[in-house]
Each structure stands twice: as structure tokens, then as C-alpha cells.
Amino acid sequence: MTVITSPxxxxxxxxxxxxxxxxxxxxxxxxxxxxxxxxxIIGDVEIGPQASIWYNCVLRADxxxxxxxxxxxxxxxxxxxxESDYGDGGHxxxxxxxxxxxxxxxxxxxxxxxxxxVGMGAIVMDGCEIEGDAMLAAGAMLTPNKKMPSGQLWxxxxxxxxxxxxxxxxxGMQRGVKGYVREGAEHTEALHAARSA
Length: 197
What we know:
Number of domains: 1
Radius of gyration: 16 Å
Low-confidence stretches: none
Shape: globular
Largest sheet: 13 strands, mixed
Order of helices and strands: EHEEEEEEEEEEEEEEEEEEEEH
Strand content: 25-35%
């Protein structure tokens, strides 16, 4: 397996995606990743193996960097951005392995550890951390510099602790990751078939 860094190669593989080098930084995308049509991937972005970036997402790493780990998924219409590095490092967006990010989420200058979950329409702001096996509920807003411990569900605007997650909750998140890996492969095949028809 290889990582695709050439804009020409990327355009050939993902013809309906904007992959833009900026400031001398070119996105690096593992060839096994699924990148859906309509996505915009800009600047210092790295996307790992079997990750999936769904329809019309924006990952804009123009003033800091974005990293997306293996098998993580960023679902339709979500935005990932960063906070500028003014000499203090700023806040990149670091998304670990096996992370679920629901539709229309906003992930900004934060760290999502391996197996974190961000619900549909949720907002994660600068300096936040969501530990592994923790869940930010749909529609919630995690305000700057908050840290969600492993095994907890937070909800509301601003988000607050609601309860401990059950084993069934955590298993459901892990099952969701596997499902998105499978669906990414299915969509890849369907798109190749449509382009070849």
C-alpha cells in the first residue's frame, strides 16, 4: 500500500474531489482511504489507511495541520479545521484511529483520541480532547479546552457529563467503525463502476 501525495495521481484517483496543495504542503492520502465526491482536502492533511471522508466534507489545514488515523470516518457535510500556530503551536486537528464523526459535525483545533465518538451536528472547539471510548452526543457543543474522559457520554450546549457509557454503547461504536470501513469499500466499487460505464 502507498500514500498518494502527487496532485496529479490524486486527481486521477478521486476526480470529483478538490485536493489542493497550499503553502508548500500537499495532502497525503493513503490509497486505501475512501474519499467521496464533493470533498475539499486542503493543505497539510494526512489521511490514514481505510479511513473514509464522506460526501461534501471539508478538511482545511491552511494554518496548522490535520491528521486522520486508520479506519476513522468523517461523515457527510462535516468540517475539520484548525487554530493558527502563532509560535505557540496553536491547535491542529488530530483524529486518531477508529474515530466516528457524525454527519454535519464541526471539529476545530482539537484532539480526538483513538475510538472517540462525535455525534451528528456536534461541535468540538479549540483545545478540546475527547478520550477513547468517550461519546459527545448529537448536537452537543464542547466548549474550548474541555477534556472528556474515557467511557463518558457528554451532551448539551455547552456539553456536560451525562452518564457513564455501557459496554453495549462502546461495542456499538466499535461496530460502527467496522461498518464504515465496509461501506467505504462498497462506495469505492460503486463509484469505479459508474465512472467505467
